[in-house]
Design a protein that fits this description.
Elements (H helix, E strand, L loop, with lengths): L13 E4 L20 H12 L5 H15 L4 H15 L3 H12 L12 E3 L8 H23 L7 E2 L2 E2 L3 H6 L2 E4 L6 E4 L9 E6 L2 E6 L10 H14 L16 H11 L3 H12 L3 E5 L7 H14 L16 E6 L4 E5 L6 H17 L16 E2 L6 H20 E8 L4 H6 L4 H17 L5 E6 L8 E5 L3 H10 L6 H23 L4 H14 L6 H4 L1 H6 L4 E5 L7 E3 L8 E7 L4 E8 L10 H20 L7
Parallel strand pairs: 1-6, 7-9, 9-10, 14-16, 16-18
Antiparallel strand pairs: 2-11, 2-17, 3-4, 5-6, 7-8, 8-12, 10-11, 13-19, 14-15, 18-19
Length: 626
C-alpha cells in the first residue's frame, strides 16, 4: 500500500467537494476512527523512541511525556478537544493526514508525491495500434466509472470487514489545484453539471474530448479511435510550448505561475477544462532506448516523470486525479495524484479495467455512423512571462529526473511459501530483512515507515506505523555478532516478528501513535494555543524521522507500482511478496547535498543478502516452530 475528508479544521489545507454525493450502499454503516487513550499513546511513544535516543535524551523525554499527560494538563485538554472533533466529523484523522502529508507539502508532485503504475507492455506496429489501445483503456475506465457513479462497484472486505469505497469516487473527475501555502482538491463528479469530457494531450497539446453520446451512453471503442485519430492529426507539430510542464514545479512556484497563467481568459478556460475533466490521457512519444538490464527501472522512472523536458514531461498535467499514459512504443500505465487516494485503490481500479479489457475479444474497427463533434483544442496565450516560467520548469524538471536513483529487481531465491513454512509473517519477515540491511550499511537503526490500511473506518486512509521497535533493534544488532548463538538470534527474530504483529494490529484498529500525536498537535493549532514542549523537543523529530519508507502491494495482471522517494535523503522501498519470489523497487536521490549517503542499488543488494542470511539462519537452527 501507499500513503491519503471534507472539513476545514485547521486552516492549512482543504479538500473540497462541489456537491456531496451519496455514499455507497454500506458506507454509512462503517465505524468512525477512534481517538486512542492518551496514556496508551504516551507509553507507546516512549517505546518507539528507545532504539533512537541515548540515556539522557530518553530521561528528558520521559519527563516531557509525564508533564504532557498529567491530570488537568495540556495533554488532557487537547485530548478532550480531539474527542469533540471526532464526534462532529466523519474522520478526524484523514482530514489531518491529507493536510499534513499532501496539501501543505510544497515540493514537486513529480517523483516526490505522485505514484504511478506500470501496465503490461503492448506491441505496437503503427500509430493506429497506440490509438486503439488508448481507446480500449478509455472505454474500460468509463465502464468502471459507471459502476462508481451507480454505487454498483463490488464492495471490498478485509478479514470479513467491509472497506470504505469513497476513494474510488475521489480518483475520478478530480484535480489538485495549487494555492498559496496550501493546495486544495476539487471533486467534480457530483457537481450539478458533472463533466462529460476527458482531456487528451499529444505533442504537448491539450484537447477536450466528449466521451458520451447525446443519449448519455459512452462512446464505443471505434468512436474513440476516430476522435483520437483526429486529435493526433490536429497536433502533428512538435514545437508547441509545453504548458503542462508547469505542473512539475515546486508548489509555491507553480502557484505563482498558475495565478499569472489564468489571468488570461483563454488560458483560464483551457485550464478549467483540464481540471474538470474525468481524467487525462497522455499519448506519449517513445522512450529512448535503454539496455535490457535498465529497462524495468527506466519504464518506472518514465511513468513517474515523463523523462524530462526533451521527452514527455510536458505531455502531462500532474495535478489531475488520474493520468492514463499510452506510449507509441507500447509503454502503458497510470500516474495519479496521491492527495485523492491511496496506491492500492488505484491498483485495484486498474485491475478492474485490465480484467475487463482482457475478457473482451479484439474486434475489427467498424465505420462510425453517428457524426461526432470535433474534439476541442485547448488554446493557450503564451506571454513572455509564461515562457520564462516554462523554461524554469524545464530546467528544474531535468535536474529532478537526473537526480532520481531508482532500482527495480526480482528476488527469485524464495517467496512467501518459505516464510510461511517457518510460520512467519511474510511482511514482517521482509521488514526485518530491510532493517538488517540498513543496519549493515549504516551501523545504526532508523525509524522505518510502514503504512497500515484504515479503510475499515469511514473515509479511512492509512495509519503510519514505525516498523522499528526495541525488539527489531535487538535482532539486527545481534545478527552479525559472532558471540551470539543461532538459537538466540532466532529467538530475537521471533520477538521482533511478534512486536511487529502487535504494532500492525494496533495501527489497523485505529490506535496509531503517529496519527494520535498528529491529531493532538493539530488540535493545538486549531485552538491557537502554545505548542506543547513534547512536540517541539528534538526527540519528537527523531521518533518520526523516517529514513526508510515502505509499501507492500499485492499485484495481478502484471501491474507494477512506481513510487519515488517522498523527501530527499530517504529510501522508498516498494515490494510485492509472491509465492516463490519478491518484486522490489528502491528509490532515492543520488546527488543532493543532503543525501550523499543514499544509494538505491546498494540497499537493494544488502536487502537481498539479508533475506538469504535470515533464511540460512532458520534452516540451520532446527527448533519448535512459532
Amino acid at each position: 500500500m501507499w500513503r491519503i475528508c471534507s472539513r476545514a479544521l485547521v486552516k492549512v489545507g482543504r479538500v473540497r467537494t462541489l456537491v456531496a454525493g451519496r455514499h455507497l450502499s454500506h458506507q454509512m454503516g462503517l465505524p468512525s476512527v477512534p481517538v486512542p487513550p492518551l496514556q496508551q499513546t504516551c507509553e507507546l511513544y516512549l517505546s518507539i523512541l528507545e532504539p533512537f535516543l541515548d540515556v539522557d535524551e530518553l530521561k528528558r523525554t520521559k519527563e516531557l511525556v509525564k508533564d504532557f499527560q498529567k491530570a488537568g494538563g495540556v495533554g488532557e485538554r487537547l485530548q478532550r478537544g480531539l474527542e469533540r472533533r471526532a464526534r462532529s466529523t466523519e474522520n478526524w484523522l484523514t482530514d489531518d493526514y491529507v493536510k499534513r502529508d499532501f496539501l501543505t507539502e510544497r515540493m514537486s508532485l513529480v517523483v516526490l508525491s505522485n505514484p504511478a503504475i506500470v501496465y503490461p507492455r503492448k506491441v505496437f506496429r503503427e500509430k493506429q495500434d497506440q490509438i486503439r489501445c488508448a481507446a480500449e483503456y478509455i472505454k474500460g475506465f468509463l465502464d468502471v466509472k459507471t459502476l462508481i457513479d451507480t454505487n454498483t462497484l463490488p464492495a471490498e472486505y478485509m478479514k470479513g470487514k467491509p472497506l470504505c469505497m469513497k476513494q474510488y469516487q475521489q480518483l475520478i473527475s478530480s484535480c489538485r489545484v495549487p494555492g498559496l501555502k496550501t493546495d486544495s482538491v476539487v471533486f467534480y463528479a457530483k457537481s450539478s453539471n458533472p463533466p462529460k469530457h476527458i482531456t487528451v494531450v499529444h505533442n504537448n497539446q491539450f484537447f477536450a474530448l466528449d466521451v458520451y453520446n447525446s443519449d448519455g451512453t459512452p462512446l464505443t471503442c471505434d468512436q474513440l479511435c476516430v476522435q483520437l485519430e483526429r486529435i493526433c492529426s490536429f497536433s502533428l507539430q512538435t514545437d508547441t510550448e509545453p504548458v503542462g510542464i508547469l505542473t512539475t514545479q515546486h508548489r509555491d512556484i507553480w502557484t505563482k505561475a498558475y495565478i499569472n497563467l489564468i489571468k488570461d481568459k483563454t488560458n483560464r478556460e483551457s485550464v478549467s477544462a483540464i481540471q474538470s475533466s474525468i481524467f487525462t490521457v497522455c499519448l506519449d512519444g517513445a522512450m529512448p532506448p535503454v539496455s535490457e538490464e535498465r529497462y524495468r527501472s527506466s519504464v518506472i522512472l518514465w511513468l513517474l516523470t515523463g523523462g524530462g523536458s526533451q521527452c514527455n514531461s510536458g505531455n502531462r498535467w500532474f495535478d489531475k486525479g488520474l493520468q492514463l499514459i499510452i506510449g507509441e512504443d507500447g509503454i502503458c500505465g497510470l500516474n495519479f495524484t496521491h492527495a485523492t487516494a491511496d496506491g492500492i485503490t488505484a491498483i485495484t481500479l486498474s485491475e478492474y479495467v485490465i480484467a475487463d479489457i482482457t475478457r473482451k475479444k479484439p474486434q475489427m474497427m467498424r465505420p462510425t455512423v453517428e457524426p461526432l463533434p470535433i474534439p476541442q483544442k485547448l488554446h493557450f496565450n503564451i506571454t513572455p512571462e509564461v515562457t520564462k516560467d516554462i523554461e524554469e520548469a524545464k530546467h528544474e524538471m531535468d535536474i529532478l529526473v537526473r537526480n532520481a536513483d531508482l532500482s527495480a529487481a526480482v528476488f527469485d531465491d524464495f517467496g512467501k511459501n518459505v516464510m510461511k513454512a517457518h510460520k512467519m509473517s511474510p511482511d514482517a519477515f521482509v521488514q526485518m530483512a530491510l532493517q538488517l540491511a540498513y543496519y549493515r550499511m549504516y551501523q545504526r537503526c532508523c525509524p522505518v515507515l510502514e503504512p497500515a490500511s484504515l479503510r475499515t473506518f469511514r473515509l479511512g486512509r492509512l495509519a503510519m506505523m514505525n516498523s522499528t521497535s526495541g525488539a527489531s533493534a535487538s535482532f539486527v544488532k545481534a545478527f552479525d555478532d559472532p558471540r551470539k548463538q543461532n538459537s538466540e538470534k532466532v529467538d530475537l527474530l521471533e520477538n521482533a516478528l511478534k512486536a511487529h504483529r502487535r504494532n500492525i494490529n494496533m495501527a489497523i484498529s485505529g490506535h496509531s501513535v503517529f496519527g494520535h500525536l498528529l491529531g493532538l498537535k493539530m488540535q493545538a493549532v486549531e485552538e491557537n494555543s502554545a505548542m506543547p514542549d513534547l512536540f517541539t523537543d528534538s526527540s519528537y523529530s527523531k521518533a518520526f524521522d523516517f529514513r526508510v519508507s515502505t509499501s507492500q502491494v499485492t499485484l495481478k495482471f502484471g501491474c507494477l507500482p512506481c513510487v519515488g522517494p517522498e523527501d530527499p535523503g530517504i529510501y522508498k522501498v516498494t515490494y510485492s511478496i509472491m509465492d516463490d519470489h519478491i518484486d522490489f523497487m528502491v528509490s532515492t536521490f543520488e546527488t543532493s547535498d543532503t543525501c550523499k549517503e543514499t544509494n538505491a542499488p546498494l540497499l537493494l543488494q544488502a536487502l537481498k543478502d539479508a533475506l538469504l542470511d535470515m533464511r540460512t539462519l532458520l534452516d540451520q537452527t532446527p527448533r519448535a516452530r512459532l
